[in-house]
TrEMBL record:
InterPro entries: Sm_multidrug_ex
Pfam families found in the cross-reference section: Sm_multidrug_ex
Keywords: Membrane, Transmembrane, Transmembrane helix
Residue intervals passing through the bilayer: 21-46, 52-75, 107-134, 140-163
Protein's name according to its UniProt entry: Small multi-drug export protein
UniProt xrefs under PANTHER family: TRANSPORT PROTEIN-RELATED
Length: 170
């Protein structure tokens, strides 16, 4: 599914915007985020690492304050509607099923949750869980940003060193 989504985005935007804009936009999308964007940037699109990293970090950070500050009131409003209540309940249940690490270790739990690139983790889910747990913005935002930087180092290594090295070797 993720692979299809990435190729769909690339196909839809290629020729309309630059490779750099594609990388930036992918880094803002839930599920894909910085992790998917760096995998696309190096091995697939050939964007230089010195360009890709800042684009991915900034793109991944942009949604975070909105999620931390606005998701709770938005979800509250959506729960008041017949149409959106099942969707919000599903999203909350899915996010809160991953809350243990964050709830137990708070700041550092959130850093690790966002920073270790595993399925179902990342800035979007980490921010959602932090907001639902009532974590203060001044604590949650820096934790998410540090986690994004940690994920950047890991994904840089995978995308540009491991996969880039394999690509360069043929």
């Amino acid at each position: 599914m993720t692979n299809t989504l990435i190729h769909g985005i690339i196909n839809a935007l290629s020729g309309s915007v630059s490779k750099e804009v594609i990388v930036f936009l992918i880094s803002m999308i839930p599920i894909l985020e910085l992790r998917g964007a760096l995998l696309v940037a190096g091995p697939i699109l050939g964007v230089k690492v010195s360009t890709a990293i800042p684009l991915c970090i900034i793109g991944n950070i942009i949604p975070v304050p909105f999620i931390l500050l606005l998701i709770t009131p938005v979800f509250k409003w959506m729960k008041g509607t017949k149409t959106f209540k099942p969707l919000v309940d599903k999203l909350e249940n899915k996010a809160m099923s991953k809350k243990d690490q964050i709830e137990k270790y708070e700041f550092w739990g959130l850093v690790l949750f966002v920073g270790i690139p595993l399925p179902g983790t990342g800035a979007w889910t980490g921010s959602l869980i932090a907001a639902l747990l009532g974590m203060k913005f001044k604590k949650a935002f820096p934790a998410v940003v540090i986690g994004i930087c940690m994920a950047t180092v890991i994904m840089w290594f995978i995308s540009y060193v491991l996969l880039g090295g394999i690509h360069l070797l043929g």
